[in-house]
C-alpha cells in the first residue's frame, strides 16, 4: 500500500511538473501551495489497532506528528525543486476545536476521548511548522477557532470561513493580525452558487469582515488573503477555476486600493 501511494504521488507530481513547464511558469516565482491534514485532525481521524482514536495515545500522537512533519517537508522540497518556485504549506485542522473541547466520540460511551491540552496541541503544530521549511498556514472551517493557542504558535497564517466567526473570533483575529501575521478569509463559495458573484461582490464580502477588526483598510493590505471558504474537492473543474479567479481578483483589488472597495 505504501509503495502504491508513493507511486501515485510521484505520478501526480510528474503531471504537475509537465503542466507547469508547458505553461511557462518554471522559475517565474508564482507561489504553489501544498496541503495536508494537520497533526490533531490526523490523530483524531486515524484508529489504533484496538479501535480507539490515535489521539488517545500520546506516544502515537507524537509519532504521527513527527512522521507528518517529515513527509510534508520532503514533499514540499521536492515540488520546490521540480517547479523552481516557492512552495508553501497548509495544514487543515477542522477537528482542532472539537479535540480541544473534548467533543470527539470514543469507541463506546464508556470510553470517552479526553480533551486535548492546548499546550500539547501547540507543540504538535509547532513541530510541523518547524520542519516545513516554508511559510505555513493553518486552515479550519469549524466554529470555535482557538485564537489564543494560534497566537502562541509559530503558524504564519490562519485561514477561516467568515460565516463561522463570532465577535470573540474577531477579537482573536485582530490580535493575530496585530502580531504581524496573516488571516485568509474564505469569502468565495466552495461550490458553484446559483448565481456567480462578481469580483466586486467578493471584495465587498472581504471588507465586510476586515472593517470589523478595528484597523484601517490600508494597514491590512499585506495581512489579509482571499480564498474559497473550504476545499474545492467537491467543486466542478469549471467552478474551481472560477473560484480561484475570483479570489485572485478580489485580493488584487484589496492590495491595490482597499479604500476604493
From TrEMBL:
<dbReference type="Pfam" id="PF01717">
    <property type="entry name" value="Meth_synt_2"/>
</dbReference>
<dbReference type="InterPro" id="IPR002629">
    <property type="entry name" value="Met_Synth_C/arc"/>
</dbReference>
<dbReference type="InterPro" id="IPR038071">
    <property type="entry name" value="UROD/MetE-like_sf"/>
</dbReference>
<dbReference type="GO" id="GO:0009086">
    <property type="term" value="P:methionine biosynthetic process"/>
</dbReference>
<dbReference type="GO" id="GO:0003871">
    <property type="term" value="F:5-methyltetrahydropteroyltriglutamate-homocysteine S-methyltransferase activity"/>
</dbReference>
<dbReference type="GO" id="GO:0008270">
    <property type="term" value="F:zinc ion binding"/>
</dbReference>
<feature type="domain" description="Cobalamin-independent methionine synthase MetE C-terminal/archaeal">
    <location>
        <begin position="4"/>
        <end position="252"/>
    </location>
</feature>
<protein>
    <submittedName>
        <fullName>Methionine synthase, vitamin-B12 independent, putative</fullName>
    </submittedName>
</protein>
